[in-house]
């Protein structure tokens, strides 16, 4: 064990001597002291043991307290130095034991440099020894058998039989195995738990010891109770009394820590080697006795050798130092040797290849035990690049200082060329600039050659050289006169200007070749990368300096111009009537122009530096203005405002704007402002606003007049149409029938004129509402033809209609689009001579639908083509007096088309050559199916006898309509005011009530509400019959409870369609006791059209229906109406249908209500949510009305 520790210490000592005393971490506490017992270095574990930190190095060993119970430490160290032998003893530190060894520290030349102290932790070993001693005391016989073994190892001790079984194992080994005594003694390796390969190896070794009678050593890893460890073992023969091997004994030592120490030493060396390689440094250790040195390969490579030389001496090093530096280097070396101080020097050396390099060398002198410097450790590195860079930076610094003082661009070029030429020893340096197709040399530097200043064509560079320069690449040639790739003429040209070696640097800026610099010498020159780099850097700096000087000149010019503009600006500001001013960041005035000073009656000195408060502004106004200034500063956004202000000029209105003045760094530096007197403008605006209000009022009155006009026109038209229908139903013939047909035709024209008059008013005021849906334009054309065909045929025209086979869908209002086409057709019919040609065509062009109406009629004069769509425009035609018209039809057409996102144009080659109107509409790109046109008339169900009440204050209208309905087989009564209608309805109990809106005593709206308030009135169909036909009129009638809204004069077909509805067809006898089979049903849905349809169907089935369009109103209606069934949409505004259902279920009075969810959500999760909320049924839209009626029938049967 002593030999192994000493071997580790010796190896560590040699490593420290060779590796600049660098130690790696190890668990073996190790301390190195010099001959005066001063601590030189120590391992990490030793620092903890001796309470030493890195700054304590160099202090005596006796200065430190120690955790060891080892007072003899200094005496042992002194004895080792005196007797040159090791000292060893066991020492204790608390619960742990160490073997303390001291031995002399020897250098590579066998000189004593001090003492090394090691402390090997033998705590475990001590425990093992104590156990062995106890075992020896128990059995003297065992002590004699194993005495040889115990003297050979302090660790695991064992004896194997020749058949590989354990005869004896000490306690430490048994514990390591973790088997217990009975689990180990008499067992084989495999039985103990060794891996097969391990057991087989030891069995072979036992056989070998038995056969050779010689010990055998080995190392092996083993995983026991201590984990995986590395063990060193020895097997020795046990010789019996007969001289034969009767057993094999052995000891095993745990060498894991030693192996780790060895690994760390190797890693330390590798790390040092890596550090030197990474830093590109060489290392040498010089023996001062013979001046020989050990060194690394990189050391010799720095001096120009590819491999290590057989030997290297200090004298050989000195020979490589250039003569100029040799004395300085040697003096520094000798001083370091004499004083033991560090050696650091920079010098030039001549390498083996002749190249001169700059190196840096730093050494550390090591002393022997006698204090004499005996060795020099040194590292060396090449610093040529650094020195050249320093020289280059020094030159560039001087170069920049020289150019900085110049203010003329030509002078900058000339001085830059001279300074660079002198530094490089060049014969000519040229800086040139590209101007158009030429390059210009203002002044060049020359030394022994003629100058080349002048103007030359760029093409003179030659095609090949110019290509390289344009690409921004530097051209480098050692001797242009001998380059074989150059034509003889170019070589001669270089010789003619006394140039051989040259470097040409192009300056390409923004992709353009703008300038360049050329350095030329008259002899051959091998340019170094440092030379080329310096020339390139100088060229760039010269260009920058030239641009700077030119920029400074431009700045000076601009400054002068700015000063002139400032004076001009000051003159303008002093004479403008507007107030101009600026503020600092504290909101104080910095500048105020003359106009504002005059307003205040102050001088500039009295205003500058003050804020609005200090200038006696009203406090509220001053506070607002100061806050606005700060807002501009904070937001960096301008602010515009207005304010009244009273001064000597009286109270005036002012408009002002405050804007931030933002500096180059994006920071607001000030706030500028201007104020203008807008009193006159405000007065004009007030007058204009009054005029606008007046015009709006006139426009409103115009709308009211048109609506009233239409109403008053429609009222007398209603009895006329009713009378004509009566005549038709009475079966008139002959002249009476001809007259009736003529009157119906003129009546239709009159109705159309009234409708157009109202529609064009709605379009121009933006009040026309479109009810859009996907629609096939072919169906729109069919509807338009239905309206217009009679007029076309009566005029004897030939009408050709061309439509595609495939549908053409647009998003539009069917009624309005049919109105557009019908107006265009009737227009052509009116302005085409008898028997003319009219064509109506529909086609699709990409994503546009094109509708054209073309005729061969009177045409349109070119001057009117652009005005034909204007209101009240009429073309002066030969047929004008016979065709009539208000001139509003095309204006209405254009407005409706544009509301659909389309366009319309009129085309005509002139008067008498016909005209064409082309409408373009955007096509609905997504596929649309099953679209039903509202324009198509629904079939009229054959009438059945109905009880009908007609209420109208126009006696003729009421009587004629009543007569017409009686002719259709209905039982009719009439009333002539609202109160009479309500009273008659209660006694008559009609199926259908036709109510005029504008009736005396009680208007139609209020009459409808009163009827709806009665239980019998819930199921009655109410039809508004009025001359008021605008959208808001229809909304009012729906809100009052009307089911339908017809505009006078009523078309019989439209009336018959309403009367054919199920609600109107319910026999009146079934209504005599509506409560007998009816239910109170609440319908809540935000889709008003769907709600209206459902209400109509439910009422037709005899049920009393109340509706609401959102959640809160639905709840209120449920509490008031107390329905027996509630049909609720789920997605309601204000309160969802699920929440509404829960709230209804919470009401005691509605406990038994049947709740039906009617929604677009239909998956299983949606149904479950409905049932969880309290719904009894869940129907998915569009729900089959028969299913709803079946549910209601079930409920009705249960309740009745």
From TrEMBL:
<dbReference type="InterPro" id="IPR000700">
    <property type="entry name" value="PAS-assoc_C"/>
</dbReference>
<feature type="domain" description="PAC">
    <location>
        <begin position="216"/>
        <end position="267"/>
    </location>
</feature>
<dbReference type="InterPro" id="IPR001789">
    <property type="entry name" value="Sig_transdc_resp-reg_receiver"/>
</dbReference>
<dbReference type="InterPro" id="IPR035965">
    <property type="entry name" value="PAS-like_dom_sf"/>
</dbReference>
<dbReference type="InterPro" id="IPR003018">
    <property type="entry name" value="GAF"/>
</dbReference>
<dbReference type="Pfam" id="PF08448">
    <property type="entry name" value="PAS_4"/>
</dbReference>
<feature type="modified residue" description="4-aspartylphosphate">
    <location>
        <position position="996"/>
    </location>
</feature>
<dbReference type="InterPro" id="IPR003594">
    <property type="entry name" value="HATPase_dom"/>
</dbReference>
<feature type="domain" description="PAS">
    <location>
        <begin position="142"/>
        <end position="190"/>
    </location>
</feature>
<feature type="domain" description="Response regulatory">
    <location>
        <begin position="947"/>
        <end position="1063"/>
    </location>
</feature>
<dbReference type="InterPro" id="IPR036890">
    <property type="entry name" value="HATPase_C_sf"/>
</dbReference>
<dbReference type="InterPro" id="IPR011006">
    <property type="entry name" value="CheY-like_superfamily"/>
</dbReference>
<dbReference type="Pfam" id="PF00072">
    <property type="entry name" value="Response_reg"/>
</dbReference>
<feature type="domain" description="Response regulatory">
    <location>
        <begin position="1080"/>
        <end position="1196"/>
    </location>
</feature>
<dbReference type="InterPro" id="IPR001610">
    <property type="entry name" value="PAC"/>
</dbReference>
<dbReference type="InterPro" id="IPR000014">
    <property type="entry name" value="PAS"/>
</dbReference>
<dbReference type="Pfam" id="PF02518">
    <property type="entry name" value="HATPase_c"/>
</dbReference>
<feature type="modified residue" description="4-aspartylphosphate">
    <location>
        <position position="1129"/>
    </location>
</feature>
<dbReference type="InterPro" id="IPR003661">
    <property type="entry name" value="HisK_dim/P_dom"/>
</dbReference>
<dbReference type="InterPro" id="IPR029016">
    <property type="entry name" value="GAF-like_dom_sf"/>
</dbReference>
<keyword id="KW-0418">Kinase</keyword>
<dbReference type="InterPro" id="IPR013656">
    <property type="entry name" value="PAS_4"/>
</dbReference>
<dbReference type="Pfam" id="PF00512">
    <property type="entry name" value="HisKA"/>
</dbReference>
<feature type="domain" description="PAC">
    <location>
        <begin position="343"/>
        <end position="395"/>
    </location>
</feature>
<feature type="domain" description="PAC">
    <location>
        <begin position="75"/>
        <end position="134"/>
    </location>
</feature>
<dbReference type="Pfam" id="PF01590">
    <property type="entry name" value="GAF"/>
</dbReference>
<keyword id="KW-0808">Transferase</keyword>
<dbReference type="InterPro" id="IPR036097">
    <property type="entry name" value="HisK_dim/P_sf"/>
</dbReference>
<dbReference type="InterPro" id="IPR013655">
    <property type="entry name" value="PAS_fold_3"/>
</dbReference>
<dbReference type="Pfam" id="PF08447">
    <property type="entry name" value="PAS_3"/>
</dbReference>
<dbReference type="InterPro" id="IPR004358">
    <property type="entry name" value="Sig_transdc_His_kin-like_C"/>
</dbReference>
<feature type="domain" description="Histidine kinase">
    <location>
        <begin position="708"/>
        <end position="925"/>
    </location>
</feature>
<dbReference type="InterPro" id="IPR005467">
    <property type="entry name" value="His_kinase_dom"/>
</dbReference>
<keyword id="KW-0597">Phosphoprotein</keyword>
<protein>
    <recommendedName>
        <fullName>histidine kinase</fullName>
        <ecNumber>2.7.13.3</ecNumber>
    </recommendedName>
</protein>
<dbReference type="Pfam" id="PF13596">
    <property type="entry name" value="PAS_10"/>
</dbReference>
<dbReference type="GO" id="GO:0000155">
    <property type="term" value="F:phosphorelay sensor kinase activity"/>
</dbReference>
<feature type="domain" description="PAS">
    <location>
        <begin position="565"/>
        <end position="636"/>
    </location>
</feature>
């Amino acid at each position: 064990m002593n030999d192994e520790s000493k071997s580790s210490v010796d190896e560590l000592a040699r490593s420290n001597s060779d590796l600049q005393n660098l130690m790696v971490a190890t668990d073996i506490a190790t301390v190195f002291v010099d001959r005066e017992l001063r601590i030189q270095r120590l391992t990490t574990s030793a620092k903890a043991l001796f309470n030493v930190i890195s700054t304590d190095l160099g202090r005596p060993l006796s200065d430190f307290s120690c955790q060891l119970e080892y007072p003899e430490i200094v005496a042992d160290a002194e004895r080792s130095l005196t007797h040159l032998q090791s000292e060893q003893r066991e020492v204790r530190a608390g619960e742990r034991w160490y073997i303390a060894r001291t031995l002399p520290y020897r250098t590579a030349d066998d000189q004593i440099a001090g003492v090394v102290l090691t402390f090997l932790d033998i705590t475990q070993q001590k425990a093992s020894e104590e156990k062995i001693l106890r075992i020896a005391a128990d059995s003297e016989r065992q002590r004699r058998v194993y005495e040889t073994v115990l003297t050979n190892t302090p660790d695991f001790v064992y004896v194997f039989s020749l058949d590989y079984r354990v005869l004896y194992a000490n306690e430490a080994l048994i514990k390591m195995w973790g088997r217990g005594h009975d689990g180990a003694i008499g067992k084989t390796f495999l039985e103990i738990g060794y891996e097969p390969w391990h057991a087989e190896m030891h069995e072979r070794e036992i056989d070998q010891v038995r056969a050779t009678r010689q010990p055998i050593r080995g190392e092996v890893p083993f995983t026991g109770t201590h984990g995986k460890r590395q063990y060193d073992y020895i097997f020795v023969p046990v010789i019996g009394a007969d001289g034969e091997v009767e057993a094999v004994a052995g000891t095993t030592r745990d060498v894991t820590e030693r192996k780790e120490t060895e690994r760390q030493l190797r890693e330390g060396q590798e790390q040092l080697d890596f550090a030197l390689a990474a830093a590109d440094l060489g290392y040498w250790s010089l023996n001062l006795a013979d001046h020989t040195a050990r060194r690394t390969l990189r050391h010799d490579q720095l001096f120009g050798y590819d491999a290590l030389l057989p030997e290297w001496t200090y004298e050989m090093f000195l020979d490589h130092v250039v003569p100029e530096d040799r004395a300085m280097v040697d003096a520094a070396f000798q001083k370091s040797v004499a004083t033991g101080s560090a050696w650091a020097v920079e010098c030039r050396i001549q390498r083996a290849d002749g190249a001169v390099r700059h190196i840096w060398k730093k050494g550390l002198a090591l002393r022997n035990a006698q204090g004499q410097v005996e060795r020099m450790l040194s590292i060396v590195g090449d610093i040529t690049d650094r020195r050249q860079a320093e020289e280059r930076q020094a030159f560039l610094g001087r170069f920049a200082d020289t150019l900085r003082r110049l203010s003329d661009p030509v002078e900058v070029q000339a001085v830059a060329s001279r300074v660079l030429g002198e530094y490089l020893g060049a014969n000519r340096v040229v800086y040139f600039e590209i101007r158009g197709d030429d390059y210009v040399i203002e002044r060049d530097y020359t030394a022994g050659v003629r100058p080349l200043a002048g103007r030359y064509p760029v093409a003179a560079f030659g095609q090949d050289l110019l290509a390289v320069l344009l690409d921004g690449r530097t051209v480098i040639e050692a001797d242009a006169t001998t380059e074989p790739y150059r034509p003889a003429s170019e070589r001669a040209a270089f010789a003619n200007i006394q140039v051989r070696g040259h470097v040409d640097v192009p300056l390409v800026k923004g992709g353009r070749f703008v300038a360049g610099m050329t350095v030329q010498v008259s002899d051959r020159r091998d340019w170094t990368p440092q030379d080329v780099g310096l020339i390139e850097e100088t060229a760039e700096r010269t260009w920058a300096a030239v641009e700077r000087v030119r920029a400074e000149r431009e700045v000076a010019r601009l400054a002068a111009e700015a000063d002139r503009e400032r004076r001009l600006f000051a003159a303008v500001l002093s004479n403008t009537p507007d107030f101009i001013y600026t503020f600092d960041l504290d909101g104080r005035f910095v500048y105020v122009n003359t106009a504002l000073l005059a307003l205040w009656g102050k001088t500039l000195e009295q205003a500058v530096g003050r804020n609005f408060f200090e200038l006696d502004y009203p406090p509220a106004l001053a506070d607002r203005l100061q806050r606005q200034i700060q807002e501009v500063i904070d937001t960096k956004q301008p602010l515009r405002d207005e304010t009244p202000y009273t001064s000597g000029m009286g109270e005036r209105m002012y408009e002002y704007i405050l804007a931030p003045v933002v500096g180059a760094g994006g920071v607001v530096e000030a706030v500028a402002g201007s104020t203008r007197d807008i009193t006159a403008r405000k007065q004009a605006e007030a007058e204009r606003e009054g005029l606008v209000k007046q015009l709006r009022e006139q426009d409103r009155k115009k709308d009211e007049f048109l609506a009233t006009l239409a109403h008053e026109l429609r009222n007398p038209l209603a009895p006329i149409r009713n009378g004509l229908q009566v005549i038709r139903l009475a079966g008139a013939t002959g002249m009476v029938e001809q007259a009736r047909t003529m009157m119906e035709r003129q009546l239709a024209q009159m109705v159309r004129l009234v409708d157009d008059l109202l529609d064009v008013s709605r379009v121009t005021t933006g009040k026309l509402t479109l009810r859009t849906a996907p629609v096939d334009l072919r169906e729109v054309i069919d509807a338009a033809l239905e309206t217009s065909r009679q007029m076309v045929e009566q005029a004897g025209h030939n009408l050709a209609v061309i439509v595609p086979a495939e549908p053409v869908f647009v998003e539009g209002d069917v009624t309005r689009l049919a109105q557009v086409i019908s107006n265009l057709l009737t227009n052509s019919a009116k302005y085409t001579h008898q028997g003319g040609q009219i064509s109506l065509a529909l086609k699709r062009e990409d994503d546009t639908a094109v509708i054209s109406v073309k005729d061969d009629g009177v045409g349109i004069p070119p001057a009117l083509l652009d005005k034909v769509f204007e209101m009240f425009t009429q073309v002066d035609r030969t047929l004008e007096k016979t065709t009539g018209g208000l001139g509003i039809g095309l204006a209405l057409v254009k407005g409706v088309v544009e509301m659909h996102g389309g366009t319309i144009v009129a085309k005509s080659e002139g008067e008498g050559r016909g005209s064409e109107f082309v409408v373009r509409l955007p096509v609905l790109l997504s596929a649309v199916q099953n679209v039903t046109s509202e324009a198509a008339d629904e079939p009229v169900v054959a009438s059945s006898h109905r009880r009908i009440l007609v209420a109208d204050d126009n006696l003729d209208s009421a009587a004629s309509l009543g007569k017409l309905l009686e002719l259709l087989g209905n039982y009719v009564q009439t009333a002539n005011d609202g109160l009479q209608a309500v009273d008659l309805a209660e006694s008559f109990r009609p199926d259908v009530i036709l109510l005029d809106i504008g009736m005396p005593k009680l208007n139609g709206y209020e009459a409808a509400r009163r009827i709806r308030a009665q239980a019998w009135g819930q199921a009655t169909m109410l039809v508004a019959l009025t001359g008021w036909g605008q959208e808001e009129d229809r909304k009012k009638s729906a809100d009052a409870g009307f089911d339908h809204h017809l505009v006078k004069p009523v078309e019989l077909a439209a009336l018959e369609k309403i009367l054919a509805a199920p609600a109107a067809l319910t026999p009146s006898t079934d209504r005599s006791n509506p409560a007998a089979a009816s239910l109170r049903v609440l319908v809540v849905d935000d889709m008003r059209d769907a709600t209206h349809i459902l209400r109509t169907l439910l009422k037709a089935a005899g049920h009393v229906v109340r509706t609401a369009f959102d959640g809160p109103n639905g709840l209120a209606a449920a509490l008031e109406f107390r329905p027996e069934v509630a049909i609720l949409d789920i997605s309601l505004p204000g309160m969802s249908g699920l929440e509404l259902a829960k709230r209804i279920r919470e009401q005691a009075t509605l406990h038994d209500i049947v709740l039906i969810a009617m929604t677009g959500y239909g998956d299983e999760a949606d149904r479950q949510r409905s049932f969880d909320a309290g719904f009894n049924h869940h129907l998915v839209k569009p729900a089959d009305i028969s299913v709803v009626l079946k549910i209601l029938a079930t409920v009705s049967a249960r309740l009745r």
